[in-house]
């Protein structure tokens, strides 16, 4: 969750932990807090306003190769509350400098290319509750070990529910600006929010994307808070995707060789954050990103994408397209799942290219532990260890997310929790039920 997730993470973070970071030492608190305000502007409007004046952002300038101070431009853009769509609608032919990303370094995989010989696994869930369960479990195991993500067909969510949800996200972003700006906020207490890919106070360039986000804490969110323009769709999709999440938690448990209810018993997927992304057509897609490279810090993510394409996954050090597949859902393993499975299942880096054609709509559902478990230790599952030693020490969600955000890294923060990194190996017993 790069810039991407930085926005929705701020959201998740705020929802889960509020100001739980006050438990950290004061120096790290200040660093973490500043970072959160920088990367996650929605945490607190008041606080971010105070800090804003003293920080500068910079972006790469493709014309003269220099950096420029983008803070004021980003701030001005943010204050329009119109999002990237508002900007795109103004008919500009050159994107503002603060959206321009530096050219990739030579050691990184080639940017826009995709290896057509590699194909993201597609798993047919038909019969997964009966005759084909064993096959489905085996396919999930292979895909989670080798790819960290897979497409699922015949998962049980009716196509019209998915289509309606994507349409709902589109309608939200395409409604008159003055209506949607009511939801534009950085208030941590707001559980429904609209925000953009422009991040104040960060050195990172902005991304070409707007988002509407819903925080279903412990699976609950008052439908009266949903924007009227998509109220039915959000409720309906949420009900279905929650069921799919439960089915996946059982299948993944079995794929790990554990009893079916193992993952549900440790309550690691009880809270859901739904984020509806809108990627407007971009006049200079080669200069920016829709979503920059990141892995999801969640336990599991279920993604619904429309038919525009642009999502890529890093596999064997190559960017591989995740082609839209009618009726399919994309499932990806998150960092926390990688941690508790001792690297058996992989959280995978992915990104979204900006596109000349748009808008592209997607809807990600991130699964996190119940709010009661914010400080519960999650460590490597004891049953998976046999003679291996755990790669990671136990951590809790508050610490994990604090670390994730404090590093400023878009990439997984898992290595911080490696036992060999000099950290204590705390008991993992608490995770066993
Ligand atoms: C995300 C993400 C991909 C997409 O929100 O974490 O990776 O297709 N989104 O929007
Ligand atoms: Ni993601």
TrEMBL record:
Residue ranges annotated for the Fe2OG dioxygenase domain, each copy included: 270-369
PROSITE patterns xrefs: FE2OG_OXY
Sample GO molecular function, one term: dioxygenase activity
InterPro entries: DIOX_N, IPNS-like_FE2OG_OXY, IPNS-like_sf, Oxoglu/Fe-dep_dioxygenase_dom
Domain of life: Eukaryota
Sorted UniProt keywords: Iron, Membrane, Metal-binding, Oxidoreductase, Transmembrane, Transmembrane helix
Transmembrane residue ranges: 12-38
Cofactors, names only: Fe cation
Pfam families attached to this UniProt entry: 2OG-FeII_Oxy, DIOX_N
Family: Belongs to the iron/ascorbate-dependent oxidoreductase family.
Protein known as: 4-HYDROXYLASE putative-RELATED
Organism: Salix koriyanagi
């Amino acid at each position: 969750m790069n810039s991407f997730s930085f926005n929705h993470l701020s959201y998740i973070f705020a929802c889960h932990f509020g100001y739980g970071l006050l438990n950290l030492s004061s120096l790290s608190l200040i660093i973490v807090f500043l970072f959160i305000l920088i990367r996650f502007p929605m945490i607190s409007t008041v606080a971010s306003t105070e800090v804003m004046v003293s920080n500068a952002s910079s972006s790469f300038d493709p014309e003269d190769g220099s950096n420029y101070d983008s803070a004021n431009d980003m701030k001005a853009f943010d204050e329009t509350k119109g999002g990237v769509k508002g900007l795109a609608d103004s008919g500009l032919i050159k994107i503002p400098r603060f959206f321009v990303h530096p050219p990739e370094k030579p050691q990184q995989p080639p940017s826009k290319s995709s290896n057509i010989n590699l194909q993201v696994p597609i798993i047919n869930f038909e019969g997964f509750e009966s005759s084909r369960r064993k096959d489905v479990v085996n396919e999930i195991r292979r895909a989670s070990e080798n790819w960290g993500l897979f497409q699922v067909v015949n998962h049980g969510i009716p196509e019209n529910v998915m289509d309606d949800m994507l349409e709902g996200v589109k309608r939200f972003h395409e409604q008159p600006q003055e209506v949607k700006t009511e939801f534009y906020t950085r208030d941590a207490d707001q559980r429904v929010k609209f925000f953009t890919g422009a991040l104040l106070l960060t050195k990172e360039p902005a991304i070409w994307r707007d988002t509407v986000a819903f925080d279903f804490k412990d699976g609950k969110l008052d439908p009266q808070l949903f924007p009227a323009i998509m109220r039915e769709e959000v409720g309906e999709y949420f009900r279905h995707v929650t069921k799919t999440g439960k089915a996946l938690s059982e299948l993944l448990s079995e794929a790990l060789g554990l009893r079916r209810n193992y993952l549900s018993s440790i309550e690691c997927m009880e809270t859901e954050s739904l984020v509806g992304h809108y990627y407007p057509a971009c006049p200079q897609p080669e200069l920016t990103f829709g979503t920059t490279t990141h892995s999801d810090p969640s336990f599991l993510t279920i993604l619904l994408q429309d038919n525009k394409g642009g999502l890529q996954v890093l596999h064997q050090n190559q960017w591989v397209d995740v082609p839209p597949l009618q009726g399919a859902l994309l499932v990806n393993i998150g960092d926390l799942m990688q941690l508790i499975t001792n690297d058996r299942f992989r959280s995978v880096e992915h990104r979204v290219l900006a596109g000349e054609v748009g808008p592209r709509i997607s809807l990600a559902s991130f699964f996190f532990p119940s709010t009661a478990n914010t400080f519960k230790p999650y460590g490597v599952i004891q049953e998976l260890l046999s003679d291996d030693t755990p790669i990671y020490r136990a951590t809790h969600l508050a610490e994990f997310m604090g670390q994730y955000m404090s590093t400023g890294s878009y990439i997984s923060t898992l290595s911080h929790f490696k036992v060999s990194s000099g950290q204590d190996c705390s008991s993992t017993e608490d995770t066993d039920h």
